[in-house]
Amino acid sequence: MERKKHLTTRTDKSRIIGLLIASVLRSRLPHRTLISAISASLLLLFALFSVLVPSPTPPHTHNNAQVRSLLDAHQDSVFGVPASGGSCNHDLWSSTQSRLFSGCSNSGDNFAKANVKTHPDRYLLIATSGGLNQQRTGIIDAVVAAYLMNATLVVPELDHASFWKDTSNFSELFDTDWFITFLRNDVSVVKYLPNLDGKFVAPYTLRVPRKCTPKCYEDRVLPMLVRKRAVRLTKFDYRLANTLDEDLQKLRCRVNYHALKFTDSIQGMGRLLVERMKMKNKHFIALHLRFEPDMLAFSGCYYGGGEKEQKELGEIRKRWKNLHASNPDKVRRHGRCPLTPEEVGLMLRALGFGSDIDLYVASGEIYGGEKTLAPLKALFPNFHSKETIATKEELAQFVPFSSRMAALDFIVCDDSDVFVTNNNGNMAKILAGRRRYFGHKPTIRPNAKKLNQLFMKKNSMTWEEFASRVRTFQVGFIGEPNELRPGSGEFHENPSSCICQNSSSESGVETGGISYPQNQTPDNYESNKTKNWAEEQFTEEEVEWSEGECLHSKKQSRLKETKLYSIPLLMSADQAELQEFFSD
């Protein structure tokens, strides 16, 4: 109706102009036949002009005109971003080699049981630090530290004083009874520090250095534990060495992937969010988007916002007294700048994901707000978050607590078909490791060192050239089993000691190599992780991206009796440098 109205208005104006011109001609020319012919021609010309010129788009035609214009601008330029992801010869939604591997974290025959080794008068307490995922690493390492010193672990104390100001205690985030029961063969765990010799004993407080080795605990903590009987370790994050004996690494995995289970209320809401995403489409992507003002300020990166950006982020950066003066160009060259929302969208499109994909975004406050998010929403209009797929009433019990809200995002990201991150923070690392352990589900980490240089040059190349280079640079960063060398990187990201090769290529993913406590089984959320995630066979030769295909393998052969260490790596030495950011 709007278009018809505009056409009618233009036609009326054309007729009036034509009549005026005809009137003038009649008063000056004696030949009426010629006048009539000219008038008719002019009227026809104006009418044709009115039809051919498009009417202006009414303001309500699009919900977000800014988003649409951004996408149109990309498509009209030489660097024209297509709406579709193109045709791929491989499945974007699964790992090509996952069926060959499964999680395995059972203890070895020589691993001493808790009832044999635990000393009755040694109690270890820890105070975690940071957000949900940083605290998770502290809880995991606390169990191992207690095992090393033959001590009973008191249920960890969570951080209430940091930036997040979350008052949640352990039992409000995790199932405490499950935690204690599951670990009973490894470490004795109690909910509270008991009275010793009939009276309360205040624990002796100390702090160990970061990456403290087992020998470090033996020298620094154990003597005080023997003398004081109860020791409390403060700011307990990354206070245990990354590299440990295999049995201790497997204990880390048992804690991380099996003993730590969110409460029923968190699990139930998380599953509901996952179900609603799966109802929208056959598959969905979850994006953990770190682009908060404090994140950008800490990184020292510059995103083209001029003096305003430099002033705003500069003020936030003053919070950290020990930070060096920022050098944005150097930080970007080293791949330490988180990708912008637009850059994440372009990377995904280049990898083959079209605009029909449903995208779940887990994020905090985005610097620049909707203006910053607009390009990503233009590329992926099916844009969702927990706030858009759940009601305010459903989220009400979680909203006041940042860790519980983060736990909901954790569950959705963990259960997504493809997980994507624009950073290499704690949540990204822990989820990358978890998804490796439970079937190598595709996990896309940006090769920021290469991609940042490419994004700076994108306007001087065609889309086809850009997409081809993105696919090349991302080889080794999409979650395949053989991307990282065993033992490289953070153990929580690359739990190689807990991933075993199956006996044949027909094997499915087992239950994480775990024997559950008597009369105990994991809930549906955990057991669903154990299904076979992919159907494709392993390719013996290194896979390469080609311009004509999303992922091409030169030939396929079934792999039998091959050790994990003998499988070819998909990444070069310089690609193995992982970006690190602070906190969650």
In words, what does this structure look like?
- Residues 516-525 have a biased composition (Polar residues).
- The chain crosses the membrane at residues 34-53.
- One of its GO terms (biological process) is fucose metabolic process.
- The chain is of the alpha/beta class and 584 residues long.
- 41% of the residues lie in helices and 8% in strands.
- The protein has 23 helices and 14 strands.
- It has helices at 2-28, 32-52, 65-76, 114-117, 132-148, 170-173, 176-182, 214-220, 222-228, 246-259, 264-280, 293-299, 306-317, 328-333, 341-351, 369-379, 386-389, 392-395, 402-415, 426-437, 448-456, 463-473, 524-527; strands at residues 101-103, 123-126, 152-154, 189-190, 204-206, 230-233, 284-289, 358-363, 383-384, 418-421, 443-444, 499-501, 544-546, 549-552.
- A five-stranded parallel sheet has the order 4-3-2-6-5, covered by helices on one side.
- It is globular, with a radius of gyration of 30 Å.
- Residues 1-11, 19-35, 46-63, 505-511 and 515-583 have low confidence and may be disordered.
Task: Assign a percent range to the helix content.
Answer: 40-55%
Q: Low-confidence runs (pLDDT<50, min 5 residues)?
A: 1-11, 19-35, 46-63, 505-511, 515-583
Instruction: Give a short account of the largest sheet.
Output: 5 strands, parallel
Whole-number mean pLDDT: 80
**Alpha-beta content class:** alpha/beta
How much strand content do the residues show? 5-15%
Number of helices: 23
Radius of gyration: 30 Å
Task: Please list the strands of the largest sheet in the order they lie side by side.
Answer: 4-3-2-6-5
Number of strands: 14
Shape: globular
Distance between the termini: 51 Å
Keywords: Carbohydrate metabolism, Fucose metabolism, Glycosyltransferase, Membrane, Transferase, Transmembrane, Transmembrane helix
GO molecular function, one term: glycosyltransferase activity
InterPro entries: FucosylTrfase_pln (IPR024709), GDP-Fuc_O-FucTrfase (IPR019378)
Region (Disordered): 509-530
